[in-house]
Design goal:
- The chain has 294 residues and is of the alpha+beta class.
- The chain has two domains: 55 residues, Electron transport complex subunit B, putative Fe-S cluster (3-methyladenine DNA Glycosylase II, Chain A, domain 3, Orthogonal Bundle); 191 residues, Alpha-Beta Plaits, CATH 3.30.70.20.
- 35% of the residues lie in helices and 14% in strands.
- The protein has a two-stranded antiparallel sheet.
- Helix 2 packs antiparallel against helix 4.
């Protein structure tokens, strides 16, 4: 009797499995959404990093936007120019001008430059420390607890002497570091040249207050803006116009660096054994000469 009951149960389960398999197979064919082959091809051409640097949630969303909404094919910062060319070939369009984007930390204060420091005993994360008043005198600068380091999947940013520092040989401009910085001092910026000047400060306080909390702070003295229109003073802070910078401004940038009283202006970018000469062009020089401006 038990054998018969087990046999009936097993037979019933087998029959149900066959019926449900048929139903699922029918539903799969009936309700299947056809995917444009171009979307699949674009997805294969993308690196699959799903970093969001393109402005979309992931590579699949970006691929759909390229095919259905005519979004530019050169927005993948991880894949770079080669990826853009591959996608352009799939879509039958021109790549357009591709400008690499990289992270810029708008703070140049190492541990020794920061004044009015207090001992912080809370969670060693920037997001937590940012909520505590008086962690350091400067309320604009890098906190140095490495939230950006943990967010980076490319080992392109590290804390050096208390300051978030970008390795431009590895940075792909994905924006992960920028998204987690609670003080919004990391921007993702187009690099018109391998080396560009930047103002390594975010302090918008007046000169007296800025100097009281950091020896490397911009004091809004306007010396740089008088030398070159690449720099402008906004809210007591010098800002570099990255969109219009080119090597023709190199001589002016060097003069601005040498004139800056707190040395908060510097060149950043890929490490090259080159420096700008007096004509504002690139010429080969020793690496120690370049160190003066980086």
């Amino acid at each position: 009797m038990i054998v018969i009951t087990l046999s009936i149960a097993a037979g019933t389960m087998l029959l149900m499995a066959v019926i449900f398999s048929y139903i699922l197979g029918w539903a799969n064919k009936t309700f299947k959404v056809e995917v444009d082959p171009k979307i699949e091809s674009v997805i294969e051409a993308l690196p699959g990093a799903n970093c969001g640097g393109c402005g979309y949630l992931g590579c699949s969303d970006y691929a759909v936007a390229i095919v259905t909404d005519d979004v530019p094919v050169n927005k993948c910062t991880v894949g770079g120019e080669s990826c853009a060319i591959s996608i352009a070939n799939i879509m039958g369009v021109e790549v357009g001008k591709t400008i690499p984007v990289r992270a810029i930390v708008h703070c140049g204060a190492h541990s020794g430059d920061r004044l009015q420091l207090t001992e912080y005993r809370g969670e060693k994360r920037c997001a937590a420390a940012h909520q505590v008043a008086g962690v350091q005198g400067c309320t604009f600068g890098c906190l140095g607890f490495g939230d950006c380091v943990r967010a980076c999947n490319y080992d392109a940013i590290h804390i050096v002497e208390g300051l978030a520092t970008v390795n431009y040989e590895k940075c792909v401009g994905c924006g992960a570091c920028s998204k987690v910085c609670p003080r919004d001092i990391i921007s993702i910026t187009g690099f018109q040249e391998d080396l560009i000047p930047t103002v390594a400060c975010s302090n918008k306080d007046k000169a007296k207050d800025a100097k009281a909390v950091c020896s490397a702070a911009c004091v809004g003295c306007k010396a740089c803006s008088k030398i070159s229109d690449i720099f402008r003073i906004t809210d007591n802070l010098s800002v570099c116009d990255y969109d219009h910078y080119s090597n023709t401004y190199a001589e002016e940038a060097i003069k601005a660096i040498e004139k800056c009283p707190t040395h908060c202006i510097q060149f950043i970018g890929k490490r090259v054994e080159q420096k700008m000469d007096v004509r504002g062009t690139i010429s080969d020089l020793e690496s120690e000469d370049l160190d003066r401006y980086m």
